[in-house]
User: Fold these one by one.
Assistant:
Number 1:
Amino acid sequence: MPAGFHSDFSGPLTGAFPGANGAGRDYGRGYGDDMSSAGDAGRVADLARAVVAEHDPKEVPVIEFLGACYDAGLAWVHFPEGLGGLGVSRGLQSVADRVLQGAGGPVPLGLNPMGYGMAAPTVREHAQSEEFKRSLLRPLATTEHIWCQLFSEPGAGSDLAGLATSAVLDGDPATGSQQWVINGQKVWTSLAHKSRWGLLLARSDPDAPKHKGLTYFVIDMHGPGVECRPLRQITGQAEFNEVYITDARIPDAYRLGAVGDGWRVAMTTLMNERSALGASGSRRGSGTIADAVELWAARPDLHTPVLRDRLSQLWLRAEAQRLTSERSRAAATAGDPGPEGSIGKMVGAELNQHIYEFCMDLLGPEGILYHSYAMHGANPDGDWRGPIQQRYLRSRANTIEGGTSEVMRNILGERVLGLPGDLRADAGIPWKDIPRG
Amino acid sequence: MAESGVPRVPPVPRVPFVFDDAQRQLRDMVRKFCADNFGATAAHRPLESGELYDAGTWHRLGSELGVLAMAVPESDGGAGGCLVDQAVAVEEFGAALAVGPLFGTVYLAIPALVACRPGPARDGLLSVLADGRRTAAFAVADFAGAFDPDRVTVTVEGGRLTGTARQVVDATGAEVILFAANGSDGTGLYAVESADLERTPLVTMDPTRPQSTVTLRGAPARLLAGPEDAGRVINHALRVGAVLLAVEQVGAAQHLLDLSVEYAMSRLQFGRQIGSFQAVKHRLADMFVDLEHARSTAYHAVWALTDGSDDPALAASIAQATCSAAFSRIAADTIQVHGGIGFTWEHQAHQYFKRAATDAALLGTAEQHRSRVAELVLDTAIAHSGAISVATGRP
């Protein structure tokens, strides 16, 4: 991953990217069934059936059900036993999820997106002690503890590695009571106000080049010195927060990975987010394009041949991307993932915008009405995405959050096509000497 | 194949989008053959020498490699494979700008014959086309890639054809030409020997895809499909042809992207590789996206026609709408990325650009196929009341 591909402005994963081609809708984390481990698959399915039998998800509270899943090793089947897993192939998660969700169980990634999608793999891989991992992972899995991600800053968007929030070590190493003192401001933090824990990337060494001076922490969102404020956005709502951190203290035991190794640890998190977004299939015509086709069908009084052609172009683009996702999945299942998997984010984002622009142009004067700018108002039809006009406004973020389309084109050009990188004015120089503004 | 009555071609591939080992080997073999025999330099020969294509090379494709009739049963002289196999070979032909009557023979005439009921006329012709001894053209005018009986310009009386067919691709060198002809009992599909008709060669923008106007004056003809079958046979051929053409477009577009990336890495301006400039890099990224979309729709259509997993008409139109637009755009962008050199005769970009313009116009334009898609998916869409809300401004 290059500097600049980051994604804490991705909102709740269920929310930020409303399903161009179904991405962000269906979180079976399946990679296709792994036929080489048919015995494991049977065991996973048996365990899942036992959980469902003893804790009917239609009857028991979500926390109890997800706790039972965790204890049975079905939260992340590829994790070690005792940490919510069984130590089997990751592909078998879909076997468990089919049984659990088929019986009416919740989609946990939707309830605790940063927790399941990003925190769990990072904690599992980089936390310092098994005890610490255990203490964090079970309440994460049950959704008792919601997680958020504190990466982006007002001064560090696409250039995430340039972030300025400081982490200064304090205390006596001899007594083992060392703590990090954190100061700075984070932004685009979804779910910060509901979160118990945050994943924090901060600068521990301003004298090192920007990628080298970062350290990764777990921060107590309820602790002193952490303040969340809602960040109102174009739609009038506040999906995200700003988080102000003032002399907050983090025990050194809450550090994930080595001091100065934060960038590498962060990549674990981002890689997992990417694979979480890309793993599900979708039906023809589903996703955002369904909104436009539905509106088209509902309003024959507004049809023109020019609009029909525009919609058919959008439909074809959505279908081409859907087929590309299918092809990408088939290639990954066959053990031969190709470069085509990298285009979905960019195409989906731009398609979302074009689809809602089409809807607005179809509606004409009706489209320039709005339902409400109340910051915490419920959407009238119960769909969190709101009416068409709100979706239109929300889609402007799609080409910014989770990597701007400019950054995505750089990634395609450099990582996939092998083109040379752009000139970098900040390469190799100490972070503190890099011009900022 | 998906339509009833069409001889079924085994084996059916199990996993969509995944080529098996035999298909990978086939691709390597065809690629190597194309590297030795085709390519941009060879594609200049029709203009330089006046020779339409190299008959020896064509015969080797049919006999030695056996890649002209891969989806034809072995009992009919083919390779006994499926359309996926044929597509693998065609993609490589497209990449190498292969010169020869692929369009008339492989994309249209052979699929038409496969769909015809067995009989001496059909069986004999199929076997000589399959092994590359003879070539054919398909002089059935389509509209938007579908058969339109109103456009048939040839009539049949007493087994003899009369009329004119315009702009028939690959007719110039074909030994046999297939016609749709109207008779007293309806429209049938017929085969006419080239010795029995008149051809006026036309100058084509893409010299590797020649055309002629063909005139029939009471030419003796053999019936391939009678009125009860002809519509089905012709539409099957047009659909397979559209899908193979889409695959050819994908192969050619991939070649152009490779060429453009290579140039962007090696060309220096302002002291830097031009591929390091985002204006160039982002154009190449967009070309890559268009190419991958085209590839997905073409492969999907190939599998849909092979295993019946999707509506063949919709799948073919999705592929043609996407691939014609993608190849055209990628060809134009290839010239742009190459700058001045890309506009010269000596550089191969123009040869592919002309192929792109030609392919885009054949068997239905992108716009015509898009219109077909709109008919199939938009005009039939049904509103679900309340499925989507529009704000009314009322609090």
Number 2:
Amino acid sequence: MDLLTIIYLTYSFISLYFLIFYLIIYIPHRKEILFSPKITKEYTLSMVVSCYNEEDSIGKVIDSLLNSDYGNIKKIIVVDDCSKDNSWKVIQSYAKKYKNVIAVQTPANTGNAAGAKNYGAKFVDTELIGFTDADSYPAKNSISNMIGHFDDAKVGAVTSLVLAENRSKFLEKVQVIEYKMIVFMRRLLSFVGGVYVTPGPLAIYRKSAFDKVNGFDGENLTEDIEITWHLVKEGYVIRMSSSARVFTIVPKKAMVWFRQRIRWNMGGIQTIYKYKRFFGTRNVGMLGLFILPFFIFNWLLGLTGLGILSYRIGRTILVRYLATMLSIDSNVAVATFGDINLTPSILVFFGIMTITMNFFMIWLGLSYAKEEGKRDGIVRVLLYMFFYVMTYPILLVISVFRVLTGKTSWMTK
Amino acid sequence: MIRLGDPRNAFWEAFLLTVIVFIFGLLIGVAVENSRAGNLEESYENSQISLIDILTLDSVSNLGNLSCDSLIGSNLEFADKIYEESKILNNYDNANKISNEIKLVYKKYDLLRTLLWSGALNVQSQCPDKFSIVVYLYQREGASVDEKASQSVWSKILGNLKEKQGGNMVLIPISVDSDLSSLNLMVSRYNINSYPAVIVNGNVFTEPVSVEELENYLEGKSLIQLN
């Protein structure tokens, strides 16, 4: 057996392991995916919305929160991070109109979302503190579907089902599928204590837990990942509510999408580096035993896959190019049917098995995030599976390069 | 399957199930590969008998009772047969990733083809200017990018040549990876330093050339006397 075959088989084994792992979690919990515990106690809650240059959406976000069916939202604190557009005027108009909307402005631009959120948190004195991005619209019943989880004293935070709001262009439509898959996988991971992020569009924290970890890390590009790992390290459990839907604006343009994904990856690298000493350790719960290894393994898997694919494609292109030049010189056909070898190998068998299982997981994930009147076409799913996902390891390589060269400045949308 | 409240079981259960599925997959793969090798072994047994038959014929030809046409015809027929078998062998060899059974079959076929080459040279010496011998020497494993490209083109060139010449030439592809002493000895007489290499009636080519250019050497059908 040659080295490449060994690498392929190892890669197939790891891919299969993750897929089987998700299936093993899914099967006994399939009826609980959309479950949300009923509200037994109406905890006091304050919502913090940080805003920077979001004049087009901030009003609608505040409206969504005002429209929530949860009856104990004491304050909606909207933090303007010294926007250069009319966001502050919009926020002030809401504050004038609604008593529970509080408009605050940071003394100076904080330079990142964490800074604005932490500033807003200073004005919170309720049992729970929630955060929404200034371009994300929680559904009416989202918050009430999250509250019941806090009856468990170990719960430090509850995250929601983030879906794409805008979906007219191709890039937006593919992200719709991506977001649905992310939340499905995250829901499965919540059953094993493996939730590794409480995304910005909508997350609620126990205020005492939030204070214990000193809020968000202002140095981190993905403060929502960092705070989650910090909470888990402190022994808190993170839950996810699949019935708490929040719709967020996703990038429409490739360059904006690219910068967002680089930021996510760089933030992930920063967070791994910050918590690296807990890898494999038991005394920090699932952070050391699962979250860190899971993150790192997934990235290694992606990078290895990229490496193998690049090598194979590169070699094939080179051989074909040279063969074409020689064929032309020798006056023979450049390609013939004899060049195609349809004899399948064991690697093809594993590849087909992995792809089939992947497809099944995607189908499952999409079925749990179904939206009335909206369908995810098969072509889009295939493009997501075979092309969109291929960008992940490339983005990771670029992110690693940026981190290593010290380019860690905040990259806004 | 999972005891609620003890999520870590999921990791071990998934690992165990993956190992089972993986081993099952490997076993199927090994079974398929061995089955292919088995089929080829059968073909090889038949080819071996045919070759012994031809070599016997070649030795009997010294008695003077056999025509060149019969000798050449039987050699050609045999060469064509194992040429077709070698295409299947090639495909299987590319697809087999785990077991080494095919490699052994490959080695046996290389030996068979080396014997055919030797026998064909013998017949050619007895029946000069009647047919051509084209031997294609290539690397099955460890070929560089250049060598792979070159081999791919040579395969097409020789395929076209064989199609054009039909019964006028014996085409014998032999991989040089099998480390056969007899093959190494035969090859050493041509001072070949790189592969792939094609020997047309004793003339060596290492860079791909056109079919027409090769045909010039076929028409001459000159035989380089081996020392």
